[in-house]
Design brief:
The chain is mainly beta. Helices cover 6% and strands 61% of the residues.
Length: 365
């Protein structure tokens, strides 16, 4: 088996890999293939996601398009300080929900949750067959939501603003290698991230609960974004061809957002697992392409959360990369079908989907 272009092969799916509409509000993810790039390089990309996700209530009618389009930029850099030790930096949008109900039973309700993550990682190659890595993550999270009176039992609407907070975590893991066939098996752990928010709740619900004495309440909220465990695998399967597989677990069952007035705002019934199986091929020394199938289990059971009405999805991603000299251009397209379901009001969400496009550039030094 010849794998003379294995360094470019390994980068095809990693350079174009992106995720969306995962369990809860999970969005982008740390790239272990980028961490294991054999080159000193920088990369930047732009992604666009369009969602065709809506629901219908038998009495109150359609929700309208629930998810707003997503535009974001991500980047990565890799540098070898010695033959065995390298440093890696990645910036990505790890959590993202931007939803609103313009009609239906929940009309006027919305949610905006975002986490922007910077991951700094050092990797050491102890032997040709073994390496390990570790480093901190810096996470900026912001949370806002609006709940119409139906979400509050008919006692009035509520605006919730937790503002922004920066929390810290870490990544740690190790890999087994068989360089001859480009095999790498990685197991990694990303810690939970603790946030402390100064929270403001305002609206008719506050007025009604205080007998008109106040229209807003300030409090303090402690929130923990859940930990993850990843398995990331690749191996050569034919001449200039790689197979990839990944499994991603996240402990959503212990994640809670709770405020003083409304109490529990968000909880999840179970942990989530996402699987992906891909194939990448180097067609010429300059061009390679790949395809990836993915399946995501949701973090809920039974009724959907109307502000994040997705409890699992399956999809396909295709990508390609063209290199000229030390510079490469890459792109990808993704399509996902979202699992059908209904929420506690009887609003039914079915035949929903989304697509995403990514374009980017990479330069080696």
């Amino acid at each position: 088996m010849k794998l003379k272009y294995q360094s470019l092969l390994a980068a095809i799916l990693s350079a174009t890999s992106f995720y969306s509409h995962g369990a809860a509000y999970e969005f982008g993810r740390y790239s272990y293939s980028n961490l294991y790039s054999p080159d000193d390089k920088v990369a930047v990309s732009y992604s666009y996601f369009n969602y065709d996700i809506q629901g219908s209530h038998p009495t109150f009618g359609d929700t309208g398009d629930i998810f707003n389009d997503t535009h974001y930029v991500q980047g990565a850099a890799n540098y070898f300080f010695t033959d065995k030790f390298s440093g890696n930096a990645q910036y990505y949008l790890s959590n993202n929900i931007d939803t609103q109900h313009t009609g239906g039973f929940w009309q006027g309700s919305s949610a905006d949750v975002k986490t922007r993550t910077v991951a700094l990682t050092g990797k050491y190659q102890f032997a040709p067959s073994f390496s390990a890595f570790a480093g901190p993550t810096i996470n900026q999270t912001e949370i806002k939501a609006k709940f119409n009176t139906n979400m509050n039992g008919g006692f009035g609407g509520l605006d919730l603003d937790l503002g922004e907070d920066i929390g810290f975590g870490y990544t740690v893991g190790a890999s087994y290698h068989i360089p001859k066939i480009a095999l790498r098996a990685t197991v990694a752990y990303q810690s939970a991230v603790e946030h402390s928010f100064d929270t403001t709740e305002s609206g008719a619900l506050i007025v009604n609960k205080t007998g008109g004495k106040a229209s807003s309440v300030s409090s303090h909220s402690e929130i923990e974004l859940p930990e993850t465990i990843d398995f990331d695998f690749q191996t050569g399967v034919a001449e200039n061809t790689l197979m990839t597989f990944s499994a991603h677990w996240r402990r959503w069952s212990e994640h809670v957002i709770k405020t003083q007035v409304r109490g529990e705002v968000v909880t999840f019934d179970r942990d989530s697992v996402t699987y992906a199986l891909g194939l990448a091929r180097q067609f010429t020394p300059a061009f390679g392409g790949g395809i990836e199938l993915n399946y995501a289990e949701g973090a809920g059971e039974g009724n959907l959360n109307p502000l994040a009405p997705g409890n699992g999805a399956k999809g396909v991603q295709v990508g390609g990369k063209y290199s000229f000299g030390n510079t490469s251009l890459f792109g990808a397209a993704q399509y996902k079908i979202v699992k059908d379901g209904k929420d506690i009001s009887g609003t039914v969400y079915e035949d929903n989907s989304l697509y995403g496009l990514t374009v980017g550039v990479e330069h080696k030094f």
